[in-house]
Write a structure and sequence with these properties.
Layout: H1 7-16, E1 38-39, H2 50-66, H3 81-93, E2 100-102, H4 106-117, E3 126-130, H5 135-147, H6 152-155, E4 156-159, H7 170-180, E5 184-190, H8 202-211, E6 215-219, H9 231-234, E7 238-241, E8 256-259, H10 279-282, H11 309-321, H12 323-345, E9 349-351, E10 364-368, H13 375-384, E11 387-388, E12 390-392, E13 396-399, H14 408-425
Parallel strand pairs: 1-11, 3-4, 3-5, 5-6, 6-7
Antiparallel strand pairs: 2-8, 7-8, 9-10, 10-13, 12-13
Helix pairs in contact: 1-14, 2-11, 3-11, 4-5, 7-8, 12-14
């Protein structure tokens, strides 16, 4: 092995990395063999921040001692908890503070925003998605089309990688947008494709969609808190994300949404609810809905505050570490993992994720070459030996070194473990 790819080299990198200290702010699961597990699964569920437990306990104490007064107590300030999260969410999204809101869950937010931004007409009714879209997005899109009395067979267009390829080509995406042209109502794409880890050029897609008169929105489940975003400057109409992956908000954490400020004064229809009414007259209980200024005006119900408290703890870590620095560390960690995989197992493992660091985030999707039927056995053996990652059908293992808590040594040990499993399986 090259001298710069050894365990000693990994430890030296960690020792010299000023951001490595944030690792100590997280709980790690226990390996079946004892000790902390190797956790490369932040793309599915981020680790629990140490401070989350005490913050939840603090909230529970407020509830115990204040009851309903927690909504009006200056210290607890439950009524405006989403506003406390907004500045960091805005920084991560590349947006202004009023353009973002923590609310609901990802698919619910997608439905709420599509109610405003998918307004099909007889001429313009097509939604463009990728063929490999995450099932929940597909379900939402198909149901929205049907809700409007349309047929997905004619109002849904899907674009896939070329035959024999794994990744989408931007020239194909742009050509398809141009081809659909005046029939295109909405472009809905992922920030990062969940299976391959491919980061799309979102600014280019916004420009192309707008050039033919379509609205453009994004599912940022795998992009938020993972890669730099500039939603405001790109001019995206809307975006949604979950908070339990790279944002470390916990299972089912309160999700988020972005609405560009150019739509704040537009007469957009929306599925309104009391919690989206402006605070200045919300408690007058009037019959006329007056939306909260900004993305918060798309809220509908009393926010599940317990889903926000751990997220607030994690966002405080993002703010303290600095997102540009974390993104730079992420690129280095992922490149290190990529080099180790190539050096140790390049003849046995294929990396599906783009090799260009600008076209990916913290995720590397891998599969076995030629013997794909053995991929599940490899994954099961990895879990049994304390390497937590995830499996996606039909044959993909995803590894994600999250920059807030993973280390170079984590990556080295993970690759060493996978190599040992493969060697033991070889006659």
């Amino acid at each position: 092995m090259s001298n710069d790819l050894t365990l000693d080299a990994a430890r030296a990198r960690d020792a010299a990395d000023p951001l490595a200290r944030w690792r100590s702010e997280f709980h790690f699961p226990v390996s079946p063999r004892g000790g902390p597990a190797l956790y490369l699964c932040g793309n599915s569920l981020g680790l629990q921040p140490l401070r989350a437990g005490s913050e939840v306990a603090k909230f529970m104490a407020e509830w115990q001692h204040l009851g309903v007064l927690g909504y009006h107590d200056a210290g607890a300030d439950w009524l405006k908890l989403h506003e406390q999260l907004a500045p960091t969410l805005a920084a991560l999204a590349g947006a202004s503070v009023p353009e973002v809101v923590a609310m609901n869950s990802l698919t619910l937010n997608l439905h709420l925003l599509m109610a405003s931004f998918y307004r099909p007409t007889r001429e313009r009714h097509v939604i463009l998605i990728e063929h490999g879209a995450f099932p929940s997005d597909r379900y939402a899109v198909v149901s929205q089309i049907q809700w409007h009395g349309l047929d997905p067979a004619t109002s849904l267009v899907q674009i896939a990688p070329r035959a024999g390829e794994q990744l989408l080509r931007h020239e194909d995406l742009l050509a398809e947008i141009e081809r659909i042209g005046p029939r295109l109502a909405l472009v809905l794409m992922p920030g990062i494709q969940y299976l391959t880890g491919q980061l799309l050029d979102l600014g280019v897609l916004v420009k192309a969609g707008h050039s033919v008169g379509a609205r453009v929105g994004f599912d940022l489940a795998h992009a938020m808190g993972n890669v730099p975003l500039s939603l405001h400057d790109w001019g995206a109409d809307f975006a949604v994300w979950c908070s339990y992956k790279y944002l470390n908000g916990g299972p089912g954490a309160t999700a988020g949404a972005f609405v560009h400020e150019k739509h704040f004064d537009a007469d957009l229809p929306r599925l309104a609810g009391w919690w989206g009414n402006d605070l200045t007259n919300r408690f007058e209980f009037g019959t006329e809905f007056r939306p909260y200024v900004g993305a918060a005006g798309w809220q509908v119900s009393n926010t599940p505050l317990l889903g926000m408290v751990p997220l607030k703890s994690s966002l405080e870590l993002f703010a303290a570490a600095g997102f540009p620095a974390l993104c730079a560390r992420s690129r280095e960690l992922t490149a290190w993992l990529e080099r180790l995989l190539d050096q140790q197992m390049g003849d046995r493992i294929e990396i599906l994720t783009p090799r260009d660091p600008a076209a990916r985030g913290a995720q590397l999707s891998i599969r076995l070459r030629d013997t794909r039927g053995n991929g599940r056995a490899l994954f099961d053996a990895m879990l049994a030996r304390g390497l937590i990652c995830d499996w996606r059908e039909p044959d993909v293992i995803r590894l994600a070194p999250a920059p807030l808590y993973n280390s170079y040594e984590d990556c080295w040990r993970a690759v060493e473990l996978v190599r040992d499993i493969l060697n033991a399986a070889t006659p």
